[in-house]
Amino acid sequence: MPRVLGIDIPGRKKLEYSLRYIYGIGPALAKEVCEKAKLDPNKKADDMTDEDIQHLVSVLQNDYRIEGDLRREVSANIRRLISIGSYRGRRHRAGLPVRGQRTKTNARTRKGAKRTVGVVRGKEARSAAKAAK
């Protein structure tokens, strides 16, 4: 497993697919990086020489915002939205979907597990409701 910028990329996969394990690099960017670094995207990551890895690292560091820098930028953007009190910021703060999705049904990933609201009938159901709190 070659190590690129502190991230182990899978060595048995083609370089084009291995680069996607780096946060901020998707399919299109992986192809673009291979072209800029003058590397064969179909070559296995294990077959890269130290010189190839150094060339790849220099291209990634100089031309792209990835990993920690990108994560910081995204979180700063979200903090800014929250601080100015925009609609999107309020949705982030409340833990609700931000991009206009419906919330009457679905949205369980953002909202979390269902919580029963109202009267719970039956002794077993009440004890289960208490345990859920």
Descriptive report:
This protein is mainly α and 133 residues long. The chain has a domain at 3-63: Helicase, Ruva Protein, domain 3 (Orthogonal Bundle). It has helices spanning 15-18, 27-36, 50-63, 67-84, 87-94, 108-111, 123-132; strands at residues 3-4, 7-8. Helix 4 packs across helix 5. The longest helix is centred in the middle third of the chain and has 18 residues, at 67-84. The chain is elongated, with a radius of gyration of 23 Å.
Summarize the structure.
The chain has helices spanning 15-18, 27-36, 50-63, 67-84, 87-94, 108-111, 123-132; strands at residues 3-4, 7-8. The chain has 133 residues and is mainly α. It is elongated.
The average pLDDT value, as a whole number, equals 89
| The first-level CATH class name of the domain at 3-63 | Mainly Alpha
CATH architecture of the domain at 3-63: Orthogonal Bundle
For the report, how would you describe the main beta sheet?
2 strands, antiparallel
**Tally of separate helices:** 7
Strand content: under 5%
Taking pLDDT < 50 over at least 5 consecutive residues as the criterion, the unreliable ranges are none
- CATH topology annotation of the domain at 3-63: Helicase, Ruva Protein, domain 3
H and E string:
EEHHHHHHH
Structural class: mainly alpha
Helical fraction: 40-55%
Instruction: Please give the alpha-carbon distance between the first and last residues.
Output: 45 Å
Shape: elongated
Q: What is the number of beta strands?
A: 2
The strands making up the biggest β-sheet line up spatially as 1-2
Radius of gyration, taken over Cα atoms and rounded to an integer in Å: 23 Å
GO molecular function: rRNA binding; structural constituent of ribosome; tRNA binding
InterPro entries: Rbsml_uS13_C (IPR027437), Ribosomal_uS13 (IPR001892), Ribosomal_uS13-like_H2TH (IPR010979), Ribosomal_uS13_bac-type (IPR019980), Ribosomal_uS13_CS (IPR018269)
Family: Belongs to the universal ribosomal protein uS13 family.
Subunit structure: Part of the 30S ribosomal subunit. Forms a loose heterodimer with protein S19. Forms two bridges to the 50S subunit in the 70S ribosome.
